[in-house]
Specification:
The complex is a heterodimer of chains A (214) and B (188).
Chain A lengths: L8 E10 L5 E8 L5 H12 L3 E11 L4 E11 L18 E5 L26 E2 L3 E2 L3 E3 L2 E11 L6 E14 L9 E17 L4 E11 L1
Antiparallel strand pairs in A: 1-2, 1-12, 3-4, 3-11, 5-10, 6-9, 7-9, 8-9, 9-12, 10-11
Chain B lengths: L4 E10 L5 E8 L5 H12 L2 E5 L5 E5 L17 E5 L26 E2 L3 E2 L3 E3 L2 E11 L6 E13 L2 E16 L4 E11 L1
Classes of the chains: A mainly beta (214), B mainly beta (188).
């Protein structure tokens, strides 16, 4: 009989909101609801070593310029060294941990956040700082590594954050302007149990833990 | 606990007439630390030390070959393997305890090519499967097969992606075969 009660790979998130003085105003920590289909497809084509079609992307990212081209669609792709990249520098809203205001429940086929908060200092915008990705730590019976990102609110007004996720790279697309672009895919998305109000001057920190357990 | 990324296995042994003589299907016990370290190497696009199947620490960077588990007939460097070890799985395991080699000699199995299904979304889940058939043409029954797992590429080397110890030992009759199937599933 299949025993489905053992957790092999688990995903956890922690959300903390602080005010301008750094005082924590709210936090939420729980097991994430979702790796998405795009993650499962990425693992498949890496293990297979050849093209897997029908992977939904949300755009192309060119790190050299840098520019993002908003273009939803799907693609077949085969492994390259730049796959599964989740690290993002400051101001990059197209890669790594991202946040939004949408609250539609997660489905396995989600291809992006419902309503992403954009990078900036204008109305409804927030300032994405550089990601932190810590090296794996083995503490029997598990091995964890963490991804985290601070996002600051300098918009002039309170912003309510309801969703978060991780955008990742897939294979470069050499057909776009003859430079190294990546497909951007959403591999993780969560909707918070409690919407998180981030005051002007404050910030929100999202931390994801990717864990495997014996 | 919700299984975000679940691993399940199924082991079927058939005799020379194709009749099923053993079956076990369970949630797998383990992605290894090597698996998570390779995820990290790709996620951070960086280099770190990962132990290969020979117990040697290797410097592994983000690489187009990381995770590769596809394998042709006779290739036991990659892909699903079985063995006779019985030590319970530990997160730091880097190899099967006593892997069975390829061939038709005593205690050997003829490893066939790896197979993969496409990634299919159904309801709240999305999954794909990998499997491998191994024939026993060694001249005798192969008893006490207890461990299963999968080797994958870590850069130019080979690592252990996941490993399990069966609840009961499997005997592969001479002329028969063992088929090991792993399902990798994500759940919303």
């Amino acid at each position: 009989m299949q025993n489905n009660n053992v957790s092999n790979g688990s995903l956890w998130y922690k959300v903390m909101v602080n005010d301008r003085k750094g005082e924590i105003l709210s936090q939420e920590e729980r097991q994430s609801h979702s790796f998405l289909k795009q993650w499962n497809q990425a693992v498949l084509y890496r293990m297979l070593g050849s093209s897997v079609g029908g992977i939904n992307y949300l755009g192309f990212w060119d790190p050299t310029t840098p520019t993002f081209i908003d273009a939803t669609g799907n693609t077949g792709t085969s492994p390259m060294s730049g796959d599964m990249g989740m690290y993002a520098a400051a101001d990059n809203e197209y890669l790594g941990i991202v946040i939004g205001t949408g609250n539609t429940l997660v489905t396995i086929t989600d291809r992006k956040l419902e309503a992403q908060i954009r990078q900036g200092f204008g109305v409804g915008q927030m300032d994405y700082l550089a990601m932190s990705v810590t090296a794996p730590v083995v503490a029997d019976p598990s091995c964890d590594f963490k991804l985290s990102r601070q996002i600051a609110n300098s918009s002039g007004a309170l912003i309510t954050v309801r969703e978060s996720g991780i955008y990742s790279t897939l294979r470069s697309n050499w057909n776009l302007g003859n430079h190294k672009d990546y497909y951007i895919v959403c591999i993780i998305r969560d909707v918070f149990t409690t919407p998180q109000d981030v005051p002007h001057g404050g910030g929100i920190t999202i931390e994801y833990t990717l864990r495997v357990t014996e | 606990m919700i299984q975000n990324e679940a691993l399940l296995y199924k082991v079927i042994v058939t005799n020379k007439d194709g009749k099923e003589v053993f079956r076990e299907a369970e949630s797998a016990r383990s992605f290894t630390e090597q698996w998570n370290k390779v995820v990290y190497a790709q996620a951070r696009q960086t280099t770190l030390s990962i132990t290969d199947v020979d117990g040697i620490s290797r410097s592994i960077n983000n690489n187009e070959y990381n995770f590769l588990a596809n394998a042709g007939i006779g290739n036991i460097a990659q892909g699903i393997r079985v063995g006779i070890g019985i030590t319970p799985v530990d997160i730091s395991d880097y190899a099967l305890e006593a892997p069975i080699e390829h061939g038709t000699g005593p205690g050997q199995l003829q490893h066939q090519e790896m197979h993969f299904t496409g990634s299919v979304a159904s309801g709240s889940e999305c999954s794909f499967t990998i499997w491998r058939v191994m024939f026993n043409n060694s001249g005798a029954d192969l008893v006490a097969v207890r461990e299963i797992g999968c080797h994958f590429r870590i850069g130019n080397y080979y690592g252990l992606a996941f490993k399990d110890v069966l609840a009961l030992p499997a005997t592969i009759p001479y002329g028969g075969a063992i088929t090991v199937t792993y399902t990798l599933k994500v759940t919303e």
